[in-house]
Amino acid sequence: MYQSNPAIIIVLITMLASWLVQMRLRSKFEKYAQVGLRNGLSGRQIAELMLADHGITDVRIISTEGKLTDHYNPADKTVNLSEAVYNDRSAAAAAVAAHECGHAVQHATAYSALQFRSAMVPALSAVSKFMPILLFLGVIMLRTTPLPLTIGVAFFALTTLFSFVTLPVEFDASKRALAWMDKRNIVTPQEHVMAKDALWWAAMTYVVAALGSLATLFYYATMLLGRRR
Predict the structure, then answer these.
(1) Interatomic CA distance for residues 157 and 182, integer angstroms
(2) For residue 157, is it within any domain?
(3) Which residue ranges does UniProt annotate as crossing the membrane (predicted)?
(4) How far apart are CA 156 and CA 164, in angstroms?
(5) Distance (Å, rounded) from C-alpha 20 to C-alpha 16?
(6) pTM for this structure?
(7) How far apart are CA 42 and CA 94, in angstroms?
């Protein structure tokens, strides 16, 4: 029997932590979405203002379906805001809109961590197509040959690296967003606290995801090393 019980426990703990953080994030955004901004600006207007203040004219702001689906796409230079954020005039909408524009500012200023993450995307896209089947076959065939699982673990290590590279990108975007909102008087001190809290919980989802990926990598690596004993 493989000595992987500690690894399984770690994976289960990170899965539970991920669920709790996601629930907390949704709760925070629902709460702060009820707080109207003093200035009455919508998420779209805040995004337009932040981009203009940074001299960015080649980025489009578009509305997307779903909740918490907001993201910046460096490939086509679009700030994608969920319908609620795009139209709402709340502390939560302000935080998200400014955060996503923070990524656009990173792109415009050639922020190194974002460049590194973007450079990883093609390789990661190719790897993700084969990784699940390699891990599946690797576990089944482990007593026969360790090769499929070895390759699968190597591929998974790349996805884990990507999740950790994402962390400074996300934290920096939030830092830029909060600094700009304060400088521009977009939020009051009370609204700043709410925006910062919302962005902190959003960042925690990436932290937990990175730790979960690391825990899963540890699980498969432990299984692979256990086979060789």
Answers:
(1) 39
(2) yes
(3) 6-25, 121-141, 147-167, 198-221
(4) 13
(5) 6
(6) 0.88
(7) 7
